[in-house]
Design goal:
Order of helices and strands: HHHHHEHEHEHEEEHEEEEE
Number of helices: 9
Distance between the termini: 43 Å
Number of strands: 11
Helix content: 40-55%
Structural class: alpha/beta
Shape: globular
Length: 283
């Protein structure tokens, strides 16, 4: 199961960080059912498998923080016996999964409170927390107009559009990435998710930085929403993922190359609000 999870996570790098983190945490449940003869053997197995899951997607910070938490809470202090180690692992996995899922929903509820009835919002790609935010706002009775960038080359924004298109109270329009600036004159807010927050930089799906820069020029406030579990210290080195040029070009590159990064970085000074489950921080 863990080997399959590693392979799945390698293929899920465009998926929501919370989805990846939950899948990895639950994969470690396999270790609960293994026969470990000593605590030392069990902890070595946990560390080895946790590291393999983290390496499968090094750019997903929530995966890193949740796996680190599982490892620390199971190993420190060292369990007295195998039974205690197994019980700790089972409990920690359960708590981590619950925290990931509830923190996203609570952050979305907090971010929904920043929206007003009749707002025109622009968002980028497909953030499960942004989608939850908009669904909370609609459940509260707000009506919204939404522009969603396609987020090429994988067209991730279309997921957002399809998810929200059937909801009452929202008018969804998909726009090509280069048209974001064209739409900003009509927008009351830009609302985006985040892969992680490291020091004074937000890492998110590539294309976020130019949208936020254009919003700053047009005086359109920018709100970033995500779980506080995505905040990480400077000891973490973010690893961008360079995806295949084949996603950009149907034909082989002849005499030139194609660059296809997954993420870009946005400085905090371009943002107006960061919202987590703990509330909204005005910047």
């Amino acid at each position: 199961m863990i080997d399959e999870a590693v392979q799945d996570i390698e293929e899920m790098r465009s998926q929501s960080a919370s989805v990846v983190a939950v899948k990895a945490a639950r994969a470690l449940e396999e270790l609960v059912h293994r026969d470990h003869y000593t605590v030392e053997e069990g902890l070595r197995s946990l560390e080895r498998n946790s590291n393999a899951l983290r390496r499968a997607s090094p750019s997903h910070t929530l995966l890193h923080t949740t796996q680190k938490r599982i490892l620390e809470q199971v190993t420190e202090p060292e369990p007295a016996d195998v039974e205690e180690m197994t019980a700790r692992l089972r409990t920690t996995i359960r708590d981590v999964v619950a925290d990931v899922e509830t923190s996203k929903e609570r952050a979305a509820a907090e971010a929904a409170a920043t929206l007003s009835d009749g707002d025109t919002v622009l968002t980028h790609e497909s953030s499960s927390t942004v989608i939850a935010t908009l669904e909370h706002a609609l459940e509260d009775g707000l009506t919204l107009d939404l522009y969603v960038t396609e987020a090429r080359p994988r067209f991730l924004g279309r997921r957002t559009a399809r998810r929200l298109a059937d909801h009452d109270g929202i008018d969804v329009t998909v726009v090509v990435d280069g048209a974001a600036g064209y739409c900003l004159d009509e927008c009351d807010r830009v609302l985006v998710g985040m892969n992680c927050f490291v020091d004074d930089v937000v890492y998110n799906r590539v294309g976020t930085f130019p949208i936020v820069t254009a919003a700053d020029y047009h005086d359109v406030p920018v709100t970033v929403v995500g779980s506080s579990m995505k905040f990480i210290g400077s000891d973490f080195v973010f690893e961008n993922t360079l995806r295949s040029p084949a996603e950009v070009l149907r034909e082989p590159a002849d005499g030139f190359s194609a660059l296809n990064p997954s993420y870009d970085e946005t400085p905090i000074e371009l943002l107006d609000t960061v919202v987590t489950e703990d509330g909204a921080m005005q910047l």
